[in-house]
Amino acid sequence: MTNPISKGWGLVKSIWHRANKPAKYLSVGFLTLGGFVAGVMFWGGFNTALELTNTEAFCISCHEMEQNVFAELKPTIHYSNRSGVRATCPDCHVPHNWTDKIARKMQASKEVYGKIFGTISTREKFEDQRRRLAGHEWDRLKANDSLECRNCHSAESMDITQQSSRAATAHQTFLFKGEKTCIDCHKGIAHELPDMTGVPGWK
Q1: What is the mean pLDDT of each run of 10 residues along the chain (203 residues)?
Q2: How many domains would you assign to the chain?
Q3: Please, what is the angle between helix 28-52 and helix 98-108, to 10°?
Q4: Whole domain around residue 136: which residue ranges?
Q5: What's the pLDDT at 77?
Q6: How far is Cα of residue 5 from the mean position of the Cα atoms in its chain?
Q7: S-S: 89 plus which of 59, 69, 163, 194, CB 3.0-4.6 Å?
Q8: Residue 143 belongs to a domain
Q9: What pLDDT was estimated at residue 25?
């Protein structure tokens, strides 16, 4: 009587051997089409997963974010305003261009480490890390000329006559001339500021 395990193992070896042999009967066109279809399926699955991780619901699925920075966003004009246009987490923290988005996602994967090891699992731990975490975001926005801000706020479309004299002067003096970028003056626009002691130009 044949051992079922041996029979099963023989079947697996047979399939593996056939899969590794050069195709005798499949045309180059069929293989090309199959590769194309597989590539489309992989690309579609990858982009679907990418977009699922690029939603506010995903961002605040961790209580660290929901109870800290998301709670701080709610009272601000970026969350609720007369126009009903709301900025979500990815609007400000993830670049819109695909290559920049991928780079940012790879960088943000380090945050999984913080989740696993509980580095900001309580409000007290979060406050201890707030200055460092905010600094990373400020540096990133400074380096890309506040790209995420400019996705919604176009300097070319600004009507400074509708702004306060202080804001209009600051924008004319710094923003329009390229001497400063949005984040230089608008730290804490959507979240509470950390202790700013020692930050250059901050009173």
Answers
A1: 66 69 65 86 88 89 90 93 90 88 84 84 92 91 90 86 91 87 90 84 67
A2: 1
A3: 60
A4: 60-192
A5: 92
A6: 49
A7: 59
A8: yes
A9: 61
Whole-number Å distance between alpha carbons of 181 and 150: 10
Contacts of 118 (CB under 8 A, 6+ apart): 125
Whether 23 is covered by a domain: the verdict is no
As given in the structure block, the two tokens for residue 163 are 């702004």
pLDDT of residue 66: 92
Measure the CA–CA gap between 100 and 94, rounded to whole angstroms.
8
pLDDT score at 13: 77
Query: Residue 16: inside a domain, yes or no?
Result: no
Look at residue 86 and give its three-state secondary structure. coil
Residue of 137, 188, 182 whose CA lies nearest to 155: 182
For the domain that residue 119 is a member of, what is the CATH number?
1.10.3820
Round to whole Å and give the CA distance between 181 and 174: 8
Separation between Cα atoms, residue 95 and residue 1, nearest integer Å: 65
Q: Is 200 left (phi over 0), alpha (psi -120 to 50) or beta?
A: beta
Residue type, 14: S
In a domain, 1, yes or no: no
